[in-house]
Design goal:
18% strand; 222 residues; 3 helices; five-stranded mixed β-barrel; alpha+beta
Length: 222
């Protein structure tokens, strides 16, 4: 009788062990997510583009000149606003630099406000403010591109303002649009990607390369 009971116990144990081994638990732990080694996006190539389509008449040329001149005026007004906002919390040495910069910007603004559009020359304002050093700004020769810039760009806020573009890095270059061919910023819809041709106007006072631009030709990107 005892032998029979012992045999039954052994048989039951074997069945249990067999059932346990039918679906073994995996011993390999689940891989934990890690930060991907994403290469830094390259800057879009800067290529020479023709001037935005103009009428063959002198009036067509005047119209584009006026757009760029007004965009330059707007950029100077934005720079003046920025320097005024910095004065309040600036040290004595910084305040002197900011006031000198404001004097210069006010003179430049007056010059472009009184200028005849026919006398406007793109790139004339493309230089840093004398005596101002902010990061790389003012320490090296202004690098406003001499040729138009082509980018795939979009906006998150209403223009005039910052453009986001494909391949942008945290250290720039940055582009602030203050003018557009035709003069109507509302044609640029937020979140829509456009192939744009940007025309440099003047540098922004910023530690990294940053430029005020006028938008020339543009179309919805494919």
């Amino acid at each position: 009788m005892k032998k029979a009971i012992s045999l039954l116990l052994l048989l039951s144990t074997a069945i249990i062990l067999t059932g346990c081994n039918r679906h073994p638990v995996a011993s390999t732990p689940r891989p934990q997510p890690t930060e991907a080694n994403v290469p830094t996006p390259s800057r879009p190539a800067e290529t020479s583009q023709p001037t935005p389509t103009q009428n063959s008449s002198h009036g067509g040329e005047m119209s584009w000149n006026r757009v760029c001149m007004d965009a330059t005026t707007k950029a100077l007004e934005m720079e003046i606003s920025r320097y005024n906002s910095w004065l309040g919390n600036a040290s004595a040495s910084k305040k002197k630099m900011y006031r000198n910069a404001l004097d210069y910007l006010q003179r430049e603004l007056k010059k472009y406000q009184q200028m005849d559009p026919a006398d406007y020359k793109p790139g004339d304002a493309c230089h840093s403010i004398p005596g101002v050093e902010i990061g790389t700004y003012g320490k090296t020769k202004c690098k406003c591109p001499s040729e138009p810039i082509t980018v795939e760009a979009w906006v998150r806020e209403k223009l005039p303002g910052m453009l986001d573009y494909k391949g942008e890095s945290r250290s720039g270059p940055f582009y602030i649009a203050t003018g557009i061919k035709g003069g109507d910023f509302s044609v640029i819809k937020r979140g829509v990607h456009y192939d744009m041709t940007l025309y440099p106007l003047l540098p922004e006072s910023y530690p990294f390369p940053s430029t005020y631009v006028c938008i020339g030709a543009f179309k919805v990107a494919r």
